[in-house]
Write a sequence for this structure.
């Protein structure tokens, strides 16, 4: 694992009271990219109490580390992990929300049925929670089995249905914008994992008059992975959207 294993070794060599100072010193922030390898290493080995402490921190990097660590606690059966992650999925800080998505991916790495069950529970929540579900499940390594890829498409279809049914006033909120932006790449990841079923869904949504749904499709069609998966299908979808004058 390279850097991740190196960071784990460093953390395990430190007294518990020095972990957060080390995280802050090596976070890479302020800067364009937080230290994800260190965050993953922390999530691998931190004691549960420290994971929970960091998850509740006002410091964005520490909170992200804690969120990722909650994914491990979730796998280990931590009774409070899911509820804390649900709350963090609606956090104002984008790195913390990314930590939630990575936590869900940890759950999927260990137990895909558990990830699908949790996703189903969360789909009734708000836009940021839906975005966490979409980002969590749309990870290529989780979608190698055709059944899982198909389920991811079904979940994205439900989320996109919710987008199409969103009240116009709510569409002006930041939460809706974040969800829309997430769907602007998530569909392409899932479609590549199951192209036949995925392009059927895209064809269905290409007929939607909803401008936000059509924006989501256009954004996904910009991803080269879709053209590689089905050049003819991608070109046909682009032509349909262009014919509509969008």
């Amino acid at each position: 694992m390279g850097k991740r294993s190196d960071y784990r070794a460093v953390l395990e060599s430190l007294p518990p009271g020095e972990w957060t100072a080390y995280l802050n010193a090596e976070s890479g922030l302020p800067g364009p990219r937080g230290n994800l390898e260190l965050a993953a290493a922390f999530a691998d080995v931190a004691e549960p109490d420290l994971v929970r402490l960091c998850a509740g921190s006002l410091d964005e990097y520490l909170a992200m580390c804690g969120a990722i660590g909650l994914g491990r606690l979730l796998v280990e059966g931590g009774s409070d992990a899911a509820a804390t992650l649900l709350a963090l999925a609606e956090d104002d800080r984008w790195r913390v929300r990314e930590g939630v998505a990575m936590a869900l991916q940890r759950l999927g790495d260990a137990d895909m049925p558990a990830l699908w069950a949790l996703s189903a529970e969360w789909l009734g929540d708000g836009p940021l929670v839906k975005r966490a579900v979409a980002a969590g499940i749309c990870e290529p390594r989780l979608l190698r089995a055709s059944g899982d890829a198909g389920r991811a498409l079904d979940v994205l279809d439900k989320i996109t249905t919710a987008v199409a049914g969103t009240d116009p006033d709510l569409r002006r909120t930041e939460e809706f914008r974040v969800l829309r932006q997430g769907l602007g790449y998530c569909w392409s990841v899932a479609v590549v994992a199951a192209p036949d079923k995925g392009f059927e869904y895209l064809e269905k949504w290409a007929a939607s008059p909803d401008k936000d749904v059509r924006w989501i499709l256009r954004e996904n069609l910009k991803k080269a992975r879709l053209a590689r998966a089905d050049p003819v299908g991608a070109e046909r979808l682009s032509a349909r959207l262009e014919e509509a004058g969008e």
